[in-house]
């Protein structure tokens, strides 16, 4: 089985690439979905978050006010790191179980969507790391146009992540998303063919 980590800074286009890969046949593990599971009502992680960051983060139904939590930690690196330390060990545990299940089912290509791959995980745990990237001015504009962020909010979100230049140097494959949706789809298709070829190569390799 070929395990692929797909990452990218905010508004780079990672979710679009992920959707295309899933449409073409990849099995997908969504780290954001796992993170939501990790902090669902009644979980130890949610209890730890409320104790650490404030009981007012609980909504009326007992679930986590994720938007309020994001605003609370966004501009504070120490707070973000404390939050990651509470949530991501559980996310990684569940993700490892999902990968093992996929391997047992004979799945050929699994793509794990991990926005904070370089911040909170070990890239060496995957066979390939794919980065979707776009210039910062384009990502800022996308945040403002499609998500309604102010310029200051967009800048704060961008600053909260590692610079993409550092991630490019540590990735096996980089997909640049600085043009049209059609151009991105063409690049994603080329990526898919590369992943299929690598999966076939591994399948044909003699067992050691």
Name some characteristics of this structure.
single chain, 208 residues, 58% helix
Outline:
The chain is an alpha/beta fold and 208 residues long.
Topology:
Blueprint lengths: L1 E6 L6 H11 L2 E4 H8 L5 H10 L12 H8 L3 H29 L3 E5 L3 H4 L7 E6 L2 H12 L3 H9 L4 H6 L3 E4 L4 H24 L4
Parallel strand pairs: 1-3, 1-4, 2-3, 4-5
Helix pairs in contact: 1-10, 2-5, 7-8
* Beta-strand segment tally: 5
- Per CATH, the architecture is 3-Layer(aba) Sandwich
Low-confidence stretches: none
- N-end to C-end Cα span: 15 Å
Overall helicity: 55-70%
Total number of domains: 1
Beta-strand percentage range: 5-15%
The backbone outline, from C-alpha atoms, is globular
Strand order, largest beta sheet: 2-3-1-4-5
Task: Name the CATH homologous superfamily.
Answer: P-loop containing nucleotide triphosphate hydrolases
- SSE topology string: EHEHHHHEHEHHHEH
Characterize the biggest β-sheet. Answer: 5 strands, parallel
Mean pLDDT score:
93
Walkthrough of the structure:
There is one protein chain. The chain has 208 residues and is an alpha/beta fold. The chain has one domain: P-loop containing nucleotide triphosphate hydrolases (Rossmann fold), CATH 3.40.50.300. It has ten helices and five strands. The chain has helices spanning 14-24, 31-38, 44-53, 66-73, 77-105, 117-120, 136-147, 151-159, 164-169, 181-204, and strands at 2-7, 27-30, 109-113, 128-133, 173-176. A five-stranded parallel sheet has the order 2-3-1-4-5, with helices on both faces. Helix 1 crosses helix 10 and helix 7 (136-147) packs across helix 8 (151-159). The longest helix is centred in the middle third of the chain and has 29 residues, at 77-105.
């Amino acid at each position: 089985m070929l395990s692929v980590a797909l990452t990218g800074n905010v508004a780079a286009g990672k979710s679009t690439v992920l959707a295309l890969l899933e449409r073409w046949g990849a099995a997908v593990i969504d780290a954001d979905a796992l993170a939501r599971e990790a902090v669902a009502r009644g979980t130890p992680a949610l209890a730890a978050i409320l104790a650490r960051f404030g009981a007012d983060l609980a909504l009326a139904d007992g679930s986590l006010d994720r938007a309020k939590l994001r605003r609370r930690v966004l501009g504070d690196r120490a707070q973000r790191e404390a939050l990651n330390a509470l949530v991501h060990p559980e996310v990684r545990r569940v993700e490892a179980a999902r990968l093992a299940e996929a391997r047992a089912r004979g799945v050929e290509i699994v793509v794990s969507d991990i926005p904070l791959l370089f911040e909170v995980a070990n890239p060496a745990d995957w066979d390939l790391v794919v980065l979707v990237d776009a210039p910062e001015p384009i990502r800022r504009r996308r945040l403002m146009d499609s998500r309604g962020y102010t310029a200051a909010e967009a800048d704060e979100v961008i600053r909260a992540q590692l610079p993409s230049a550092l991630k490019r140097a540590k990735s096996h494959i980089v997909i640049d998303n600085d043009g049209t949706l059609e151009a991105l789809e063409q690049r994603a298709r080329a990526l898919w063919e590369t992943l299929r070829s690598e999966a076939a190569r591994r399948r044909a390799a003699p067992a050691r």
